[in-house]
Amino acid sequence: MITTEIPAGIEATNRLFEALVAEGKLSDLSAIYTEGARILPPGAPMVTGLPEIAAFWQAAGAALQVKTLTLKTVELDLFEDHAIEIGHAAIHTAASPTPLPVKYVVNWKLTAEGWRWDIDIWNPEN
Question: Under CATH, what is the fold of the domain 2-124?
Answer without folding.
Answer: Nuclear Transport Factor 2; Chain: A, (3.10.450)
